[in-house]
Design brief:
four-stranded parallel β-sheet; TIM Barrel
Length: 208
C-alpha cells in the first residue's frame, strides 16, 4: 500500500481513495465494547502519513461491503438495527484516530449495490436471495431483506454523519458524505407513465 502511494505521487495524482476495514479496528471483530486493535490503527496511521507525505489527499471510506463475519453470526449484520450502534462506534474510532489528518470522509460505498446484489439477487456477499430467484443463495427473501438492509444502511450513515458533525468537525474541520451509484434512464415515450417510471428507477438508485 505504501508503494502504491508513492506510485501515485509519481503519476501526478493529487487524491486517492482509501477504504478502511472493520476487522482492523477490533481484535475480536466486534465493535462497541470490543477491544481496539492498535496494530490496525498503527497500520492505517502509517499509510495515511505516507499518503500525505507524497502530497496526496486521502478520501477515506468507512464501509465498502466488508462486514466482519462475527457481526453477521451474532445478529445478521445489516439485517438488524443493532448494526447502527456498532457502526457509530466504529466510525467514532476512525474519526478519533485519523481525523486530525483525514478531512474527507465517506460513510458508505454504493449502498444500493450492497443491498441489491447482496440481498436481492445474491450475486455478491452475503449471497442472500429468494430461492425462486437463485437456488444457490444461502437463504433470504428478495422482496423483504433488501429494504431492511437499506433502512439500516441509511440509519448507519445518518448516525455517523451526526456524530462527526457534532463532535469532530468543529475541531477537525473536515467534511463527510456518501458514495452513490446510478445508471441513467430515458423514457421510451413522452408520456407521464414513462417519465414516472424513469423517475422512480432513478429514485431507487440515488434517493438515499
Amino acid at each position: 500500500m505504501v508503494k502504491k502511494s508513492k506510485g501515485q505521487s509519481n503519476s501526478k495524482s493529487t487524491v486517492c481513495s482509501l477504504e478502511l476495514r472493520f476487522h482492523k479496528k477490533r481484535k475480536d471483530g466486534k465493535l462497541n465494547g470490543g477491544q481496539v486493535n492498535y496494530e490496525g490503527i498503527n497500520y492505517y496511521n502509517n499509510l495515511i502519513n505516507e499518503i500525505l507525505a507524497n502530497g496526496i489527499t486521502p478520501y477515506v471510506t468507512l464501509f465498502h461491503w466488508d462486514l466482519p463475519q462475527v457481526l453477521v453470526d451474532e445478529y445478521g449484520g445489516f439485517l438488524s438495527e443493532k448494526i447502527v450502534e456498532d457502526f457509530e462506534y466504529y466510525a467514532g474510532v476512525c474519526f478519533k484516530h485519523f481525523g486530525d489528518r483525514v478531512k474527507n470522509w465517506i460513510t458508505l460505498n454504493e449502498p444500493w449495490t450492497y443491498s441489491v446484489y447482496g440481498y436481492d439477487t445474491g450475486v455478491m456477499s452475503p449471497g442472500r436471495c429468494s430461492s425462486w430467484y437463485n437456488v444457490n443463495c444461502t437463504g433470504g427473501n428478495s422482496g423483504r431483506e433488501p429494504y431492511i438492509v437499506t433502512h439500516n444502511l441509511i440509519l448507519s450513515h445518518a448516525t455517523a454523519v451526526q456524530l462527526y458533525r457534532n463532535k469532530y468537525k468543529p475541531r477537525q474541520k473536515g467534511r463527510i458524505g456518501i458514495t452513490l451509484v446510478a445508471q441513467w434512464y430515458e423514457p421510451c415515450n413522452v408520456s407521464n407513465g414513462d417519465e414516472a417510471a424513469v423517475y422512480r428507477k432513478l429514485e431507487f438508485m440515488l434517493g438515499w
